[in-house]
Write a structure and sequence with these properties.
This protein is an alpha/beta fold. The protein has ten helices and eleven strands. β4 and β5 form a beta hairpin. α3 crosses α4 and α4 packs antiparallel against α5. The longest helix is centred in the N-terminal third of the chain and has 16 residues.
Length: 254
């Protein structure tokens, strides 16, 4: 049997591929464990700055493996949640590269990423109510953070599929590509991000993600806790030095 999740490195970019095309990349226990392990690797390695999450065979992810669910297969990982990502995504930036369907849990996986690159024929949706279920992997609170409230409510209550071009209009999708090119587009964006210092990237993401929960009185102190260590890092010395010497910086993640 082939591995449920594959990883491949491209410089400082880790590409993570859900590899169950015969099941439209539906999430079972093996997929959840594989994604969690890949995110652990991304976060633990100094030479990796960003990840790209995609699906094999022209589909991103059709959600939970319902057949597996009925037989007791657990599509969650303790501490990380559904698909090994929804409760605790990567500390480092992560881009979803979406072809075909990103539905139900698959849409919630995309919502767990920081940016989305999608082919023009991709479709997104939370169809759980059509099956008597509820989107319980973060979609119901992440979606209204990404798109306008009333449209998020309509999308969640109707369970309808929304095309990538509409989702781009709403600000959910960063970049659109031609069919079959979402991974190439995501890697192009990832490599651009990876030109920057990895510690600075992780700290920047952490502030953006956590700041909405901070009160006005604590925002500066909370931000300081995250970014002050970056200013004392070796990379913070390397950046200005490279600028002064008119060369590309060599980041160490230290």
């Amino acid at each position: 049997m082939s591995e449920a999740v594959l990883t491949e490195e491209d410089g400082a970019v880790l590409v993570i591929t859900i590899n169950r095309p015969e099941a439209k990349n539906a999430v079972n226990g093996a997929v959840a464990q594989g994604i969690a392990a890949a995110l652990d690797e991304l976060d633990s390695r100094k030479d990796l700055s960003i990840g790209v999450l995609t699906g094999a065979g022209g589909t991103f992810c059709a959600g939970m493996d319902l057949k597996g669910f009925l037989t007791g297969d657990n599509p969650t990982v303790e501490g990380r949640g559904f698909a090994g990502i929804t409760e605790r995504p990567a500390d480092k930036p992560l881009i979803a590269a979406v072809e075909g369907y990103a539905l139900a849990g698959g849409c919630e996986v995309a919502l767990s990423c920081d940016m989305v690159v999608a082919s023009r024929d991709a479709q997104f949706g939370l169809p759980e109510p059509k099956r008597g279920l509820v989107a319980g992997a973060g979609g119901l609170f992440r979606l209204p953070q990404r798109i306008p409230f009333h449209i998020a409510m309509e999308m969640a209550l109707t369970g309808d599929k929304y095309p990538a071009e509409r989702m781009a209009e709403l600000g959910f999708v960063n970049r659109l590509t031609e069919p079959g090119q979402s991974l190439a587009g995501a890697k192009e964006l990832a490599l651009k991000v990876a030109e920057n210092a990895p510690l600075a990237l992780a700290a920047t993401k952490k502030v953006i993600v956590e700041a909405p929960d901070w009160s006005y009185a604590e925002r500066w102190s909370k931000q300081g806790e995250i970014i002050i260590p970056v200013f004392g890092s070796k990379d913070a010395q390397e950046g200005p030095a490279a600028f002064a010497e008119k060369r590309k910086p060599v980041w160490k993640g230290e």
